[in-house]
Design a protein that fits this description.
Order of helices and strands: HHEEHHHHHHHHHHHHHHHHHHH
Shape: globular
Strand order of the largest sheet: 1-2
Oligomer: single chain
Structural class: mainly alpha
Distance between the termini: 23 Å
Largest sheet: 2 strands, antiparallel
Strand content: under 5%
Length: 444
């Protein structure tokens, strides 16, 4: 892992060249995939760093999404608005993500987990679109800090009682149920805020709407996966309490996902609708992680990777139309099929992926999650049915309202897309549909 950490640090030295950084990121993803696939398993590299198959997938996703996010941020590059600083901030965000997904020590994991907040806030405050980005940054900061302090106290208590913070050696001592419950909630709350779970999700739409396109793509593609990854690492410590309280989380995930899906159907902002759809998808991921079953965990990881590629591509598409029309409103920028017809195919392809249609990776993940939830309770299957139906409903709402209808813009002719934009969209869509061919990585 250290060679990739130093590789990212060396990329900051060539922050004047966007092409060099992008090619280095693609090269890093290629080298990382070859290294791990040559002997797939669990690797420990020293300095409390290591990677298993979940960390491997998420680190690879981080490299890939960040390279595509830089490709979509042509506005920052052409505008000369501190483009070198923009690259450095993104690279430090990637560094914090790599360290988070490869930590084998709980305290180091906590430090790296929280350090990703700083570059994200700088992206939102420095390169956001509107003055409301200050409010979005404050929302994000306080929601994260609210959940992070109990998590730190939990890890320090674990060291005090167990004598170690190494993930493979730590275990929660036997305590009374009430104390175990308090400890469990304190440990989980930081991750469900970052996921985010319904009821603690209000920071996400604000952050997405105000963030630049690179911030939105990284936030949806990778940062939301920090919550799921943290739950995978922490929940085994509290297996008894977790099993007894699984009905609470599964209920919140299903009911919250249905409510948020209904909220999606009344959104008028493209980015806001895509952001709320992320909350609905993460509700299903929460159900899978709290099932405490192999089907649930494998399905949750598959959905996290698939959603990272699909949602990031949708934010890129929303930015393409925003750069040409100057508005993200679905009521102003409708009828895109009339003057950007070639982009309609990409809207359709990524919308199909968002509703988990074949042959996307989301289909494999949602089938695994549905099997896991129904095997846990047949009544919970009813909630999954409504969630899947509403997922298709708000995705079709987004596609039909944006592509069809009479447009009210004064633009009668515009560029239907650049080669760079088509390349970025292709590199979102291709892994999303090819990874299902190596589905054994997610279910073994």
């Amino acid at each position: 892992m250290l060679k990739f950490v130093f590789m990212v640090l060396l990329m900051t030295l060539c922050s004047n060249s966007w092409l060099s950084v992008q090619l280095s990121l693609f090269l890093g993803s290629l080298l990382f995939s070859v290294l791990c696939l040559s002997g797939f398993g669990e690797f420990q590299y020293g300095w409390s760093l290591g990677v298993d198959w979940i960390g491997y997938l998420l680190i690879l996703l981080s490299f890939w999404i960040l390279a595509l996010a830089l490709g979509a941020s042509e506005g920052v590059k052409r505008g000369f608005t501190f483009s070198g600083v923009f690259l450095i901030v993104n690279l430090f965000l990637l560094l914090s993500l790599i360290l988070t997904f490869s930590c084998l020590d709980y305290l180091l994991f906590y430090i790296c987990f929280e350090s990703s907040l700083v570059p994200t806030m700088i992206l939102i405050l420095g390169w956001g679109y509107q003055p409301e980005r200050l409010q979005a940054g404050v929302y994000m900061l306080f929601y994260t800090l609210f959940g992070s302090l109990p998590l730190l106290i939990s890890f320090l208590s674990l060291y005090n009682l167990g004598g170690t913070m190494v993930m493979s050696l730590s275990e929660c001592p036997e305590l009374e149920f009430s104390l175990s419950l308090i400890w469990y909630v304190a440990s989980v709350v930081a991750f469900v805020v970052k996921l985010p779970m319904y009821l603690v999700h209000l920071w996400l739409p604000k952050a997405h709407v105000e963030a630049p396109v690179a911030g939105s793509m990284i936030l949806a593609g990778v940062l939301l996966k920090l919550g799921g990854y943290g739950l995978i690492r922490v929940c085994p410590l509290f297996s008894k309490v977790g099993v007894s309280l699984s009905w609470v989380w599964i209920s919140l995930g299903l009911v919250g996902g249905i409510i948020v899906s209904l909220i999606c159907l009344r959104q008028g902002d493209m980015k806001s609708l895509i952001a709320y759809s992320s909350v609905a998808h993460m509700g299903l991921v929460l159900c899978g992680l709290m099932l405490c079953s192999w089907w649930g965990v494998c399905g949750a990881v598959a959905v996290m990777v698939g959603h990272g590629l699909c949602s990031s591509g949708l934010f890129c598409l929303a930015n393409v139309s925003y750069e040409r029309l100057g508005s993200r409103s679905l009521f102003i920028s409708k009828g895109l099929l009339s003057f950007m017809p070639t982009l309609c195919l990409w809207w359709f392809a990524l919308s199909v992926g968002n509703m988990a249609a074949p042959p996307t990776l989301n289909l494999l993940g949602e089938v695994s999650l549905i099997v896991g939830v129904i095997s846990w309770s047949s009544w919970a299957g009813l909630g999954v049915i409504f969630l899947s139906f509403l997922s298709a409903a708000y995705t079709l709402y987004l596609f039909s309202l944006s592509q069809h209808g009479k447009y009210f813009s004064s633009v009668f002719s515009c560029c239907s897309g650049e080669v760079r934009e088509y390349l970025v969209l292709m590199l979102h869509w291709l892994p999303l549909n090819i990874l299902i061919l190596v589905g054994y990585m997610f279910v073994t």
